[in-house]
Amino acid sequence: MPIHVEIVSREEKVFEEKEADMVSIPAEDGQMGVLPHHAPTVASLGEGELIVKKGIARESFLIFGGVVDVRPDKVVVLAEIADTTFDIDQEKAQEARDHARQLLEEGLPPDEMEEARLTLRRAELQLRSISKIRTSEPIMRILGNGDEA
Questions:
Q1: Residue 58 in contact with residue 139, Cβ under 8 Å?
Q2: Residue among 19, 100, 81, 104 nearest 55 (CA)
């Protein structure tokens, strides 16, 4: 029995795969692996990489906060932010990281500090993800409609 996986951000449905084999989720308490027939669970999401595997193919997303609802045959991720790692622009991530660092060093009003910290964490996670993808074996992606690429 495969797992139906849905990833939804504040703005849109980011991804859906009806026949995944496994999901690795960045829960607040650590990475959580989900296989078919997993016990029902609701968990808070942290920051990190969410991976959906189907056969030898996989999709990878950067997740920032939210909740996940795990059922024996379905995983629904409701993320504050969900970015596919395959669309990350390294140059933009480096610029965002450098700009956020500069703003934090110069000092910001308290209400703007958290946004700058989030931008910095997001950019650093994107850059680590790019590095990981480039040093790993070639990856076969899963397309959002359930077909393999």
A1: yes
A2: 19
Q: CB within 8 A of 131, min separation 6: which ones? A: none
Question: Facing residues of 79 across strands?
Answer: 66
Residues for the chain: how many in total? 149
Give the pLDDT confidence of 35-53 residue by residue, as tens digits.
999 999 999 999 889 999 9
Contact 121, 105 (CB under 8 A): no
